[in-house]
Amino acid sequence: MIEPGTISWFRLLLFGILLRVIFKKFIYSGEVQAFMDFVLIGYFLIVVVGLVALWKSGDFVVRYTVEVAETFNVSTFFIGFIVLAMAADIPELAVAIISACKGVSEVSAGDIIGANFADAAMVIGFTLLLANKPLSIRKEDSQKLVKILSVSALVIILACMLGKLYPYHGLILIAIYFIAVIWVWKTKHKKDFLEQEGQALTEELAPAKGVITPAARWLLVAKLLASLGFVMGASFMTVQGAIYFAMMMNLPLETIGATILAIGTSLPELSLSLNALRRKEYGLVLAPTLATVLEQTTLILGVLTLASHKPVNMRPLIGAAGFMLVAFALVGYGLYRHNQVGRKTGIALVSLFFVYLGYQAVFGGFF
Questions:
Q1: Which of 103, 170, 197, 270 could bridge 80 with an S-S bond, Cβ 3.0-4.6 Å?
Q2: C-alpha closest to that of 224 among 23, 81, 69
Q3: What is the reported pTM?
């Protein structure tokens, strides 16, 4: 059951929904219809503003997380895999927590599947189109990324086959994530792509080398916590707006999560990849994006399943999951066969992205 929002302006908009039902059933009025269209636009703008706030606050989380990790002498490999992936996935994690608390796990489940697809098709696809050369990485790193994609794909396939996920499934998913982290840690090497990514981010984002006073260190921690607070607030606004927008448009919550929210919460990954492209560190474009894919399909889906008041239904997302698996296959094939992905793969991924949008528009209920 969807609980009404606690903020007064949300209650006012909910009252608008009731007006629409009453007047559409008994009285036709052009003025009333115009007012209801205005309310619908208002909900959509709330979602857009919430997504922009998620994007910007997510960028601050990435910056302050790396700065805090550096001031506490955390290894660059840890920054490259754990810190970076966690920071980039904060929007998805916040949406998962808020959705679970409000009893609308469908929103976050759709966001997880859609964001995984957007990471592969939109983020990597558009980055490949903008790159002036194929993105090549070392054979060892390529094999590691293919294994990460394979694990993520297998998890989603099994989740869709099960249909509904229960809390014990969440525990298994979280365990898989930490097992993967341990494996990546034990198989790392000096030229590991995640080690390089952590070093590059440290040099770009961390404060200049020198004496860091305790006051300065804890000020950074305070900024990080404030950024996390903004992310949670933006997530609450986005999820609330999405719920009411879906109600007025008579859309499934999974569709909103797998489209609008998924694209919005993938913007931090797009920003990270474009920054790596700008620095001409072509081999590092794939690392943060595919690391977040693993985290979303295991850790975040596990947290959602544990926190949800009801089983997480994956059946309505089988279609979106199919698109995600195709995108994974396109990226994985290039890495497995050639240790690189180029513009042809980018064209295929971007084309698949627009086909996906058309699929959701037709079969997701937008038309």
A1: 197
A2: 69
A3: 0.75
Q: What is the CATH number of the domain that holds 231?
A: 1.20.1420.30
Residue 2 located in a structural domain: no
What is the domain extent for residue 323?
8-363
- From first to last of its 367 residues, the chain has per-residue pLDDT tens of 444 444 444 554 555 555 455 445 444 445 555 666 667 777 778 878 877 877 777 677 767 776 776 677 655 445 555 666 666 677 777 788 888 888 888 888 988 999 899 989 998 899 888 887 887 777 777 888 888 899 999 999 999 999 999 999 999 999 999 898 888 777 765 555 555 555 555 555 555 545 567 777 788 888 878 877 877 777 777 777 777 777 777 778 788 888 888 887 787 777 777 777 776 666 566 767 777 888 899 999 999 999 998 999 999 999 999 999 999 999 999 888 888 888 899 999 999 999 999 998 888 766 5
Report yes or no on 3 lying in a domain: no
Cβ atoms of 294 and 148 within 8 Å: the answer is yes
Distance between CA atoms of residues 272 and 91, nearest Å: 14
Let me know if residue 62 belongs to a domain. Answer: yes
H-helix segments, 131-249:
139-162, 167-186, 193-205, 214-249
Total domains present in the chain = 1
Tell me how crowded residue 365 is: count the other CB atoms within 10 A of its CB. Answer: 15
Extract long-range pairs of 31-40: CB within 8 Å, 24+ residues apart: 36/248, 39/13, 39/248, 40/245, 40/248, 40/249
Alpha-carbon torsion (153, 158, 163, 168), positive or negative: negative
* C-alpha Rg value of the chain to the nearest Å: 21
Number of residues written out for the chain: 367
